[in-house]
Model the fold of this input.
Amino acid sequence: MTKKMIASALGVVSLLTGFGAGQAVAPPAAAKGTSLYSFKTTALDGAAVDLDMYKGKVVLVVNVASRCGYTPQYAELETVWKEFKDKGLVVIGFPCNDFGGQEPGTSTEIRDFCSKTYGVTFPMMSKVQTKAGEGQSEIYTFLSAGTGKLPSWNFGKYLVGKDGKPVAFYGSGVKPTGEELRKAIEQALAVKPVS
Done:
């Protein structure tokens, strides 16, 4: 079975079953941070990243994996990144091995796979845990508190406004270049920043 056929089959399963649509969660008792820009993380190359550097931009946060039926979305995420980055959008990939063990690689393996296979140039961070519980990334605790949703599979997407607050969650089956997400990005980019 080709990768395109697998991805198509997963898309149909997602639409029919809600698989990958996101898991509803109760807000955590105390999510740290008041905006996405208050967090620090680590890039795939090990460099410290202060998300404050993206303050005032719209951010699309995606939990990614290299061995998933949705992995071809890397190409669409790159397309969205190239189309909107000069208008104020940042796409950030957070590799995640929470679902089906589909991101077992090291940071170097992930970086090489993404750049060689899909030409990824958008920011990629170190592997994180998105699932609730001990070890969950504080960034995902914050995002789930703001939307009431956590990814239930790879390639869950959070759209974050210029104010650093989550606008919406989009499940795995929502295509990065699809009309639903594209309209939401355009609307978020059109919002005037609060002074």
Remarks:
- The two ends are 53 Å apart (CA to CA).
- The CA atoms of residues 8 and 69 lie 8 Å apart.
- Residues 3-17 form the longest helix (15 residues).
- The helical segments are 3-17, 73-84, 107-118, 138-147, 179-190.
